[in-house]
Each structure stands twice: as C-alpha cells, then as structure tokens.
C-alpha cells in the first residue's frame, strides 16, 4: 500500500498515477494526469494528460493509468529532466507507483551542481559522485551525441571508435606501447657504491647452475676454471680429444679391453625404435674409431664386462621387441662374436634392461636390477650371481636371497668397505627416488683379488679436489642413466637424468663419492656449460685418464659423437 498524500481534498478524487508537487488544498476533483508538473502554486483548472512530464526522473512504463503508450526511446529507459529538489516527482513515495527508480541524468547533475558520476554500474542504480573541483554544469542533454546531431538524426556524423592498441607487459595504458628501457649510465658516472652493487648483481646473474641447468645454490660449489668449480680456485671440465660419427649413440656398453674401447650396440638417435648391432673400436692413443666385428647382438640398455682379458660378455638388454637375459661374448683374439648357452640348472631372470653387471672375478659377475617381461618387478629388484665357463661357452644364473629397491638405469661400483668390516662392497647408486646407496654384496678381505692401482695421478687430483669442497651425507636424489667409474677409493658419477623435475631433466653435474672415511661423503661439483649435458653415456678409465663416450645431449634426442677427457684444475 502506498502512503496517502498529506493534503486533504474536499471531494472525491479521480484516479491518479502521480501526485502533484503542491502543498495547498484542492477544492475540486482533478482529472487524470500522466505526470504532474513541478509547480508550487494553486492549479484551479485540471491539467490535460501528457505523455512525458518535465519533472520526472524515473523510467516510463507502458500501461500505467492515465498515460499514453510511450514511444520506443521511452521504453528503452530514456531519462527525462528532473524536477526541483523536494518536489513530488522526486519523492520516493509518489502516489501511483512503488519506490522511485533513480536514473542518472546529466541535467540532474548540472541542476544540483554536481559533477558527472564515474561509477561503472548501470543507470538503474547509479549514483552521482561529487568530485573536488568539478562542479561545472553540463549544457548538452544526454541524447546529444559527440559530433553534433541528436539521437535518431540521420544527418549527424558517425562517432569515431576508440583505436585498439596492444596491451603487453609493461605497456602504457594510454599509448599501448612499452616504455623504453632507460639507457645505462656511463661507467665514469657511477659512484663507488653503485659500482659495487653492479658488480654484485653481475655475480648473481652468472652464478652456478644446479643439476638441470637451473640456478641453484649448491653446497661445495664456487667459481673456478672450466665448466665446473669448487672453492679455492679449483675446477673441472670435459675436454674433447676426438670426434667420430660412429660413436654417436646412446645407451651402449663401453669397456676397455687390450688398450681399446669396445662400444657395443645402443640407440643411434632419439627416435630410433630398434637398437644398433654393430661394434665400434676406439683407440684412445691414436684418437681414431673403426668399425669392428659384424653380426653383433642388437642391444640397448644392456651391460657388459671383460672376462679373462680376452672375452667381452654382453648381458641382457633390449633388442627392439623384448627384454633379454642371454649372454653373448666377443672373442677379442679372433674378432668374432659367440653365442653362449645356458648351463643345466641355470635360473635366468625373465628379462633385464637398465641393470648393472659388475665383474667380481674372471668367472663370476654380479647382476643387479629388476626383472621385466612376464615377471616385471615394481616394488623390489633382484640380485643374481652369473657364473661363466669360457672353455665350455656356458653361463649359469643363481638368484641371491636378498632383494634391493626397485631400480632401473642405476650404476654399480665395487669399492673398499670402510669401518669395522673391512673388505669390498658393491654399491648401487640412483635408478630410484632414494638418494642413499644400497649394498648389493659384501666380500671380506682376500675374497676379491686386489689389482694394482691404475690411475695414481687422477686419484691424487680427486683427493685434492674434494678438499676444496664440503662433503654431505646424502647424494643425488632421483638420478638415472648416468655414468660411474671407480678411481681408487672414489666413485665418479656424471650426468644422467633426474626424476625430481618434469622439465630440463638432463644433467651435467659431477659427483664424487669418497670412501676413505667412515661414513663416506658426497661431493657435488656443478657445471654451467649446458653443452656438456649427457644421458645414456659411458665413462671409461684408461692410462690415468677418465674418458666420456656417447650419450644424448641436452634435448635428449641428439647423440654426441665426441670423446672427451676429464680435466681437473687445482
């Protein structure tokens, strides 16, 4: 119900839709009107009906009592001119309608001495906002558009649209252009303090990179010579000494036998689905590679070990269609491949790939890895003792009772065992998310034949290098398909692929595992040269030098044809 008007009528009143803005008594009934004028005097005569009133601020609606049907612009909510403040047309309780619906009008702002509103909401709920220093009255009604003419006039010029400008990071909101960088000041105009800040910023920008090439603070790292470094001016790098397209492959086996490197199998490229079956012989003294005996086994992700100074035994691997556990041997004297057979009582695994094969003696190998094929292991790995009989050309598998974590793409190192139980132990590194090495075998003193040291100078250099760094109890986490070589009491690991990141997974870092003290310590030496990233490569020790052969580069698909030597700068 609406509130009755405050003045009293002497006679019955006809239906009205809007009350007049008057304050006197009306002795005679008034005829129906559409909108009342904003008057303050007595109206002796009834007012005729009108379609638009000059003193309203609400939106016209079709069908109101006493009104004619509004035109199309009125149906779209065109505002009308307001009445004076305090008139009945501006009252929220005008008779004949509900609460007043305010529509913004520039004329209302001009009449009230207010500035145009800046609210982004629609006109139905817009409010006029006062701005300091902006009280100038507007002279043009709302329907007078920029450029002249009125709404619906075909002769008026078309309004020009605002030009669209690109918005980029740092772009100016008015011009759409990015502000130009300020020119660097001449070096002579920098104060000593500013020069110190610039020097520190340059040092931070060129800081060493982590395992995947990303910026990372690494324990025991510092500026040095070459690609990697350690505090105190020590550093390291891989120096190229040879290059041949025959060596461009990944996931092969590489072993030193009779002064030459035998590179067997592998993938010739990142998109290759079938491994290679050729054998390449690299002479490190001459720096030349030649193709060896043909009809070799097509294998990748396999491992090999020299036996008796004559045979090179290739164990397991992927042949392009399945995982194998068979043994193929290369006779270095005759330069021919031989297929050895399984001896009676052999219990071979279902299939092996990404495993390790470590020589314990001339007739015994230790194989560690998880099985594939029909007995794929997900939670654990197996350890096998592989006994060889070169005279009979046979082999025999025997599974050990202990198990390891489920590993693939790991490496193994037979190292001296420090502590109360001296001897030798076989340690597994990487191939899973754990950073801890795992013992895959232990032999007491005298069980394994001691061999004379083969790299005295390199061992001394590694001992001096680790004194420049800071050791840690934990090694790299989630590293696989890296290389590992034993140099005296040290295990030298390089490159590989990390499981801790989804992008930039190929690494180029050097890790040294020192077993001279108990407990053993890890030393990490990062590398800033992204061109040295490797995965699926091999390292081989010969003549007091550590060689790097094969592997994919930074993209994980392009094989590297280079042969490099590890150089240490102390």
Folded structure, characterized:
The chain is mainly beta and 570 residues long. The protein has four helices and 27 strands. It has helices spanning 72-75, 106-112, 192-205, 456-467, and strands at 228-230, 234-243, 253-257, 260-264, 279-283, 288-291, 303-307, 311-318, 323-331, 336-339, 341-342, 356-361, 364-369, 380-389, 394-405, 411-417, 423-429, 438-444, 479-480, 483-487, 490-494, 497-498, 510-514, 521-525, 538-542, 545-549, 562-569. The strands form seven sheets. It has a five-stranded antiparallel sheet. A five-stranded mixed sheet has the order 11-15-14-13-12, with no helix packed on it. A four-stranded antiparallel sheet has the order 3-4-5-6, with no helix packed on it. Strand 14 (380-389) and strand 15 (394-405) form a beta hairpin. It is globular, with a radius of gyration of 45 Å. It starts with 71 loop residues before the first helix and ends with a strand. Mean pLDDT is 73; it is low at 4-25, 32-41, 49-112, 114-176 and 183-226.
Q: Which descriptors apply to this entry?
A:
570 residues, 5-stranded antiparallel sheet, globular, 4 helices
**Biggest pleated-sheet summary:** 5 strands, antiparallel
**Which strand-content bin applies to the residues?**
25-35%
Q: Could you list the spans in which at least 5 consecutive residues all have pLDDT below 50?
A: 4-25, 32-41, 49-112, 114-176, 183-226
As laid out across the biggest beta sheet, the strand order is 1-2-27-26-25
The number of helical segments is 4
Structural class: mainly beta
**Strand tally:** 27
**Gyration radius, in Å:** 45 Å
The overall average pLDDT, rounded, is 73
Measure the end-to-end span.
Answer: 98 Å
Which percent range fits the helix content? under 10%
Shape: globular
